[in-house]
C-alpha cells in the first residue's frame, strides 16, 4: 500500500512537480549548511547588565551563625532550606536513603502533645506550604553540567516555600520541627505503597535509553570514589531493592522500619552541623527572629543523642570498568543511539568565561556540531559541555538515528577545529557570547530560580555576587582568535585521544556487535566492553 501511494503521488506531481520539490529540498539543505546566519549580527549587549536585564533584586542580608538570609524586598514568598551533612552514613543505610526521603512528610507525626496521622498531616501542610521537597542531592547550578548528577549527594536537604505572613512563617518552622523530631515510621502499609509506586516509576524510567545511558555514565564518574552514596542510591540499585521488598513485604518489615529509624536518628545527630538558608522578604524574619532562634536552639539540643557507631568501612566499590576506551551498553527497548565521550582534566578559573562561550559556539543552532549532526539528520541532539566541580569535559550525542555517521561527523568536526582546518567564525562567536549571557540570565530571571542559586551557594561557594560578576565578564568578552584556539586545543583535543578519554555508547541490543566493529574498523579501538544488562552489571 505504501509503494502504491508513493507511485500515485509521483504520477500526480509529474516531472515538473518533482523537479520543483527537488529544487526546494536542495535550497533548504544549502541554507542549513551555511556557516553564518543572521544571528551572528546581533550587536554587543550593553555593559550595564543589571540596568538592562531587570533581574529580580536580591542581596545577602546578614551573616548570622549557621543561617544565610537573602533579602528580596519585592517577594511575597519565603523559601526555607535546611542542609544537613550526611557524611559517613553507614553503607547499609545509604541504600534506604531515597525511600526515607520519599516518606518524609508522608508519615504519622508525634511531637510533644501533637499527634497526627499521615492524612491529617498532609492536609495540614497543604494549607500553608506552596512547595515541599526532600532530597539527598542538589540539582546542578547554571554553571554546572546537567549530564553530571548527584552533586553534593552526602548533603540532606529539606526545602519549604510559603507566603510571607506572620502566622504562616511560624507554622512553616513548626513543620520542620514535626518532620525532624516527630516522624514515626509505624505504618508498614504506607511504606509498601510508597515502594510499589516508586518501583513502577523506576521500571518505566529504565526502559528509556537516555535514562539508562545517563545513569550508567554517572556510575562510571563516581566509580573512582568507592564510598560515594551514588552506588547505593542510583536507579539501578534502587530498582533491585524495591523489587526485593515488594516481592516479600512481610519478610523485610522489621528490617525496613529499623533502617528508616536509624537514618532518622543519624539526621537528628547531625543537626549540630546543619545550615539554614532563607530567601525572600527578610523584614518579616528580622522582626520575628526569635522563632528561628528557638528552632535552631532546639535542633542543637535534640542532636545531643548517642547513636550506634557504625562508620563506613573501606570497600572495593563497584566493579565498573574505567580503563576501557569504550563501553557499549544494550537496551532492548531503545531504537535510538546515545553517545557520551568524556575526559577528566583540571578546569582553570581564568579559562572559565572563554570555555563557556566556546561550549555554546560549538553546539548552538547552526554551529559546528549542530551542522555536523543535526542538520545532516544523524541525531536529534548534540552538545559540548563541562563540569567544573568534577573537572570533566564531555561530548554528548543523543537520539541518533544514524549513530555511526553522527559519531564520525562530530569527531571529525572537533578534529578539524583542533588542527585549525576549520576557521573560527568571529560573528558566530559573538552570537555565542550573547547566547551565554542570555542562558545565564534566564537562570536568574525569576525569584524562584534566583533562590535556587542562593541556596546552592552554601554548597559550591558560588555566590549570587559571583554570578553577577560573571555576567559582566562574559558581556565584556571580546573576540581573540589566538586565545580561543588555545582554549580549544586545551579542552577539546583530549576528547580526540583514546588514552585521555573514554566513550559510553548505548544502542539497541541487536546493534552492539556492529557498533563494536565500527569502533575497531574506523578508530582502531580494540578494548571495547559490551554490557547487555546494565542492572545486573551494576548490582550483581
TrEMBL record:
Residues 1-12 have a biased composition (Basic and acidic residues). One of its GO terms (molecular function) is metal ion binding. It comes from the Eukaryota. InterPro entries: Metalloenz_LuxS/M16. Residues 1-20 are annotated as: Disordered. Gene3D superfamilies: Metalloenzyme, LuxS/M16 peptidase-like (3.30.830.10). Signal peptide: none annotated. This is Uncharacterized protein. It comes from Rotaria magnacalcarata.
